[in-house]
Amino acid sequence: MPDQASYCIHTILAAPCGWAQIGAAASRIDARIGPDGGAVYGAWRSQIGRPRDEVTVMTRWKAPPDPAAADAALLEVLPPVRASTTRPLQPTLRPLDGTAPVRQGNFAFRWFTLPEPNLPEFLDLCEAAWPGFEAAYDSQVVGLWRATAGEAAGMAETLLLTRRPNLAMWERSKLPEGEAESEVRAKLSRRYDLCDDTHVYTTTLLTAADRADAARWT
Fold first, then answer.
1. Which among 90, 107, 182, 202 counts the fewest CB atoms within 10 Å?
2. Which CATH number covers residue 84?
3. Does residue 210 belong to any structural domain of this protein?
4. What is the pLDDT of residues 160-207, one digit of tens each?
């Protein structure tokens, strides 16, 4: 059974060259939103596909928060930022609990927009493909959430977060080798076909417990 908590994704555009300060503020965010039932799930810096100073923060809540209030709470304890948006999410198949990711790696955030009737097959394909995907590529599916606000009528929007050990494995996972990997890719390709739109960007984990990422990606 997936985690029963609620989540928010916060997209924060830091001051120029200020992205590291957002990650360093994670403990202050925890202290601010903890009394309201919230906690930081993770903070990620842009790697490929997003602006250099953009940081993605995810928070986990015991009860569904008001997005505007959650956004305002973060801004109270963050250094000055240029822009921020908050969107509420609900887990679908994963995560199973509130255990936050702590190992550094290549984290891909992929949004899918699809007609509501396609969602059950989409979820079935994800669940069927993930074990083979994780085994073949030393990778983990962190979670698959559905947006609970901002969807167009008759449409569903989902957010998939995956971790790979490095960017090279992200590329490798797109090029199947052998029958087993080809079967996984076929399921994932069918999943893409069910969508009206999908886009992805990659990141590294500012709140990693093992090592910091000091590369200049963007």
1. 182
2. 3.30.70.100
3. no
4. 999 999 999 988 998 889 999 999 989 989 999 999 999 999 999 999
